Amino acid sequence: MSRILLAVGMRAKLAVATMAIVGLALVMGTGIVSLALYSALTSSLKTQATAQLQAIVDLVGREGLEGLNGETGAEVGAVVQLIDAQGRLLYGSRPGAPLTTLHPAVGQVLVEGITPLPTLKDIPGPVTAATGVLIDDHPVTAVVALPQVSQREAVTTVLKLLLLGTPVIVLASGIIAWWLISRSLRPVEGIRRTVESISSRHLGARVPVSGTDDEIGRLALTMNEMLDRLERGRRQQNQFVADASHELRSPLASLHTALDMGAGDPSGQRWRSLAPVMATETHRMERLVDDLLTLARGDAGTVPATRWRDVDLDDLVVEEARRPRSPGRVEVTFDVRPARVRGDRLQLVRVLRNLADNAVRAATSRVVLSVAPEGTQAVVRVEDDGPGIPADQRERVFERFVRLDEARTRDGGGSGLGLAIVRELVALHGGSVAVDRSGLGGARFTIRLPLHRQAPPEEDSIGQTVPAAPDRPGQDVLDQDTGGLSTSR
């Protein structure tokens, strides 16, 4: 049976289940109705028998046995008897033997002949009500018996009708269930056909929406939302591949040109001048490939997290601010307070470096790095005094291969992957990154990471910038013109 059910569809399964439930309910209902009807009829018959018995007792009490010679008031089919203490029949409305052996006391009413369940095979006996009376100071048993044939016929008729109607009702319920289920599953079949026709190259199709706020309608909306995400992911993937190919083409073209130029010089003198160019382009391509690999690992959820340990963010900020950079007119200052997180030190260094390099490229003259604990979070801020980022572009800057206007990419910038990597690595550490307007006039990137354990206080760092020169504690500056440390005046 189970194999058959597995081979058929959901409609057949639900229709069969509906028929089984309806059939079981009807059978149980038939039994309950029959029992209830039988109980009601026998109770009514008992009431009638006791009422007629009381009428006979009243009649005998007034007129004696002579009163029974006329109309007794008993119903048609009822049998009235008077039986003495020795079991002899004193009076009978019909010829026959005594109907009962009951000998109730005077005033006591006894009833027999009622069974708790109806009997359909044998003809049931009458319902007999008996009570004791005194006639001429002699105890006599008055009896009234009512037949149960009509009650049995009524119960039998109702039972037959219900049993005969059960298959019809069960079949009708199965047909109705099949139709309703087919109608309900029609949108699901449409969804299935649509999804079946969708391929990885054509994700623009959408499943039909019924327009009703039910499970099927919500399923269709959910499927369309999923298809939207898949299509968006596919477009981003294609764009990612196209942008990566474009970014790799430039250094490869430069290397190809350098190789052609070097090969065209039989003396080999050009190689000396081409070597720095080739090294620069190779390093650029290496960084791009490394960035692409980091993002690919993030998409696949395989960014390694096995090197996690306690990391003092204030130390990383100081190291990043003091990192030598190419000569320029931008000074980098920092303001740190102890803040310790749990994470991968190399990944956190990369986050700070990407933000700092981005700020230095955009800044006019100043970049400020800061870190401080705020509640249960360590907050790192990287600010510059450059042109800033428009409000409508602040979320877009974290997308891959996104560059803003030339004002924020003075030297041509990077590949457009730096901020995307920042968001990926910060999310890996359970944090968030956002950008708004800095008090310096430019952009301010804010990173929030969960504090792991508060770093021990240091007299020269808590509540102030780490001093680099004795004449003015609290301000350490990296002079881009000289590439060394100097004190900001």
From TrEMBL:
Pfam families recorded: HAMP, HATPase_c, HisKA
Location of region: Disordered: 453-489
GO CC entries: plasma membrane
Segments passing through the bilayer: 12-38, 161-181
Record SMART domains: HAMP (SM00304), HATPase_c (SM00387), HisKA (SM00388)
Domain of life: Bacteria
Domain HAMP per the UniProt entry, residue ranges: 182-235
EC code: 2.7.13.3
Compartment(s) of residence: Cell membrane
Keywords, alphabetical: Kinase, Membrane, Phosphoprotein, Transferase, Transmembrane, Transmembrane helix, Two-component regulatory system
Enzyme class: transferase
PROSITE patterns: HAMP (PS50885), HIS_KIN (PS50109)
Major localization listed first in the record, in broad terms: membrane
Catalytic activity line of the entry: ATP + protein L-histidine = ADP + protein N-phospho-L-histidine
Domain Histidine kinase: 243-453
Molecular function in Gene Ontology: phosphorelay sensor kinase activity
Protein name: histidine kinase
Organism: Raineyella antarctica
Organism taxonomic ancestry: Bacteria, Bacillati, Actinomycetota, Actinomycetes, Propionibacteriales
